[in-house]
Write a structure and sequence with these properties.
The protein is mainly α. The chain has two domains: 88 residues, no CATH class; 183 residues, Farnesyl Diphosphate Synthase, CATH 1.10.600.10. Helix content is 59%, strand content 0%. It contains twelve helices and no strands. The protein is globular, with a radius of gyration of 19 Å.
């Protein structure tokens, strides 16, 4: 699975490594519940994705994890299996009324990832992939908005757009990692529009084995444009969040857009190389975050 909600400084293809835990921009009173959400998401993601367990064992473990979540929501004691996860999560659920369905959606996405991407089916089209994003990424944004007390429909829709964009950006960023592992997230309909099928990507799955054909480059250019439009649709949310939260989100948005810039700078060949953001990008991200203005959802990204 590829699903970091926060790609601002993504050093490796881990999924919740860049979640904004204990950031200096995070209000101190929210650091504990945010860390609890992080611990829950990261542990579940590791169950789904790390180690040598087979698919059946991973699914069984995620079902047990789901049962622990239900117990935490009821206020029941956690088992001895994941106390470091569910003790702080149960406290956060009680103290901040964290919605159980959003946490359960994450587990649903992890289970789907095991069942769908590893049997060769992949995703038929963009709506189907966005439904996956709805459960794999959007709950993170909604949980954070819940902590900040923001719950109107427009803000939630903008948060969903940002989180889905971040998920898509991670997919297009991680092609050189995911394809060799048999993970195919490119929508089949988009591939077909460029005369490609999933099997066409097998020849250049190993890093550097072969140059991707022009049709594949054009496909990624389209996917990058889709992700950019979705991010710009959600970007006005940065003006709705108070203080530190708004600045945190500005950097998240600009970090995602910067990854797209870097994919385009590679000629949209993220099949051969995984673009990342490093310390050298910090000043540019800060400048772009500072200059974000109240604009229409169709606002353009900053010059590169």
């Amino acid at each position: 699975m590829s699903s970091p909600p926060h790609p601002v400084a993504a050093p490796a293809p881990t999924h919740y490594e860049n979640f904004p835990v204990a950031s200096w921009l995070c209000p101190p009173h929210l650091r504990a519940p945010i860390a609890a959400i992080y611990g829950f998401a990261r542990t579940a993601d590791d169950i789904a994705d790390e180690g040598e367990a087979g698919a059946a064992e991973r699914l069984d473990d995620l079902r047990a994890f789901r049962a622990e979540l239900a117990a935490a929501a009821r206020g029941a004691a956690s088992s001895a299996r994941w106390p470091e996860v569910f003790a702080p999560l149960a406290h956060a659920m009680r103290s901040f009324a964290l919605p159980e369905p959003l946490l359960a959606d994450l587990l649903s996405a992890f289970m789907q990832d095991i069942e769908k991407t590893r049997d060769g089916r992949g995703y038929a089209d963009r709506p189907e992939l966005l439904d996956y994003c709805r459960r794999s990424a959007n709950p993170i944004g909604r949980l954070l908005l819940h902590l900040y007390g923001v719950d109107d429909a427009r803000a939630l829709a903008q948060s969903d757009a940002i989180c889905s964009a971040l998920q898509l950006i991670n997919f297009w960023q991680d092609l050189s990692v995911d394809l060799p592992r048999g993970r195919f997230y490119l929508p089949h309909a988009d591939s077909a529009a460029h005369g490609l099928t999933a099997s066409d990507f097998e020849d250049f799955r190993p890093l550097g084995a072969a140059a991707p054909p022009p049709a594949a480059i054009a496909l990624i250019a389209d996917e990058v444009a889709w992700a950019r439009a979705l991010m710009n649709e959600g970007a006005p949310l940065v003006h709705r969040l108070p203080g530190r939260a708004g600045w945190e989100l500005r950097l998240v948005v600009q970090g995602g857009l910067r990854i797209l810039d870097k994919i385009e700078a590679l000629g949209c060949d993220s099949f051969s190389r995984r673009p990342t953001i490093g310390k050298s990008d910090a000043a540019l991200l800060a400048w772009r975050a500072l200059r974000m203005r109240r604009q229409s959802p169709a606002m353009k990204s900053f010059p590169r």
